[in-house]
Specification:
Structural class: alpha/beta
Mean pLDDT: 93
Radius of gyration: 21 Å
Low-confidence stretches: 1-8, 18-25
Number of strands: 13
Distance between the termini: 15 Å
Strand content: 15-25%
Number of domains: 2
CATH topology of the largest domain: D-Maltodextrin-Binding Protein, domain 2
CATH superfamily of the largest domain: Periplasmic binding protein-like II
CATH class of the largest domain: Alpha Beta
Length: about 425
């Protein structure tokens, strides 16, 4: 089920911003406030502002992740807040249900054609409502240490059976290393892999939510990784920590199953600088030839708030940034983000890799990355992802400590998420 259908029951607090904008017409220059944690956002605003004197964008960084989520909800409830806010796709349904994200479909006619369907479905929620403009995307792929693969005589796995065999070969060749790490602190990682296995964590049927966190797809993925952890062929622990980064930097973790930001972003530069240029990317291993495509691990849109008095102007800026060659080019230049739109992908194909990126020197980097982006599948996020992600980290951690199955932990997460949906007033099957 696509995200466009699956969030149909979210309109508890969301509303259209069209009527609010009527007051701003004819007033002359306006200043839009954009909450975003992107380091390159001020440069993006400067580029826009130089050519648009009547619509100026002011950037404010209030922190990322849960920091912005908490502050933005509080600001909008108080009738305040910015005109626009960066929103990772997994949090967008929560912003809708809490009345933060406005329906800007009156200003986005035809914009859908600028994106692959799986990307657009992340923001076109409910009955035709559009609650953000996609800016970047993060399809899942495989990053691997090409130098160590050669040293240990390993081949890049094309399917998950080969991946498991490669993990065992790597352990035999380098007993103090592992092929990969199972990240215990990132529910989005397992959710992304679940999509490839055909399993939605949330879905909606006739107005009632279903929670599938312990359904066949996610359970099969969890059991697969459980077997590798139990064999010692992969590790299990938090990713992004100093310890994890040290293991990456020292060549003790040979691959990363990760969103495209792992290759296009700065995590290797900051966390494992000694490995710059030693990584290569490949398509994510498949379960079968019938896989629906790969899921996403991250990626961002920007929403227009329900308190904004200038939604038309905000949508104009976001359309430029998210769908045009000029706007997406500025985004790439300022931050290196992997663009969401078709125009942006064309621009990205012609941008040389910076020398400080993980995969610097991979001749077919752009070809592989663009092929991965062309093979994405619809992902459904529910209205209480914050609850699900917190419960996941808690329960997977307890499973490791008590040596109990990951699948059983998913069942506990399922129960927490279902109960929360019911308490929040949603119909739940």
């Amino acid at each position: 089920m696509t995200a466009a259908v699956a969030v149909g029951a979210l309109m508890l607090g969301g509303c259209s911003a069209a009527s609010e904008d009527e007051e701003s017409k004819g007033e002359g220059p306006v200043t839009l406030t954009w909450w975003t944690w992107w380091a390159g956002a001020p440069g993006i605003a400067d580029e826009w502002n130089a050519d648009h004197p009547d619509i100026q964008v002011k950037v404010t960084n209030v922190g990322g992740g849960t920091d912005q989520f908490t502050k933005l909800n509080a600001a909008v409830r108080a009738g305040e807040g910015p005109d626009m806010a960066l929103a990772e796709y997994q949090w967008l349904p929560s912003y809708i249900s809490s009345g933060v994200a406005a329906d800007i479909s009156d200003y986005t006619d035809g914009l859908e054609d600028s994106y692959n369907p799986a990307v657009w479905n992340l923001v076109e929620l409910g009955d035709g409502g559009v609650y953000g403009v996609p800016l970047d995307q993060a399809p899942m792929l495989l990053m691997y240490r090409a130098d160590l693969f050669e040293q240990y005589g390993l081949s890049v796995p094309a399917d998950w059976d080969e991946f498991a065999e490669t993990a065992r070969q790597a352990k035999a060749a380098a007993p103090d290393s592992v092929l990969a790490n199972f990240p215990t602190n990132d529910a989005g990682w397992l959710a992304g892999l679940s999509a490839q296995a055909g399993g939605d964590w949330w879905s909606l049927d006739d107005g009632a939510w279903s929670v599938g966190i312990d359904s066949d797809g996610p359970t099969s993925v969890a059991e697969y990784w459980q077997s590798l952890v139990d064999d010692g062929a992969v590790s299990a622990g938090a990713s992004g920590t100093p310890e994890f980064n040290s293991q990456l930097n020292n060549g003790k973790i040979l691959t990363q199953v990760i969103g495209s930001w792992g290759a296009t972003g700065s995590s290797i530069k900051t966390g494992a600088p000694d490995t710059i240029g030693k990584w290569r990317i490949a398509p994510l291993p498949q379960w079968s030839d019938d896989d629906p495509g790969v899921g996403f691990q991250g990626g961002s849109s920007t929403l227009v708030t329900t308190t904004s008095k200038h939604p038309a102007q905000a949508a104009e800026f976001l359309t430029w940034l998210g769908s045009t060659a000029d706007g997406q080019g500025v985004m790439i230049e300022q931050g290196g983000n992997f663009p969401a739109s078709l125009e942006g992908l064309e621009v990205y194909a012609g941008v040389p890799q910076p020398a400080d990126k993980a995969t610097y020197g991979q001749d077919d980097f752009h070809d592989v990355l663009l092929a991965v982006a062309d093979n994405t599948t619809d992902v459904t996020w529910g209205p209480n992802t914050t609850v699900a992600f917190s419960a996941y980290s808690d329960q997977i951690g307890k499973a490791l400590e008590s040596d109990t199955p990951f699948a059983a932990a998913l069942t506990k997460v399922q129960s927490v998420v279902r109960d929360d949906l019911k308490k929040s007033g949603f119909d739940v099957e």
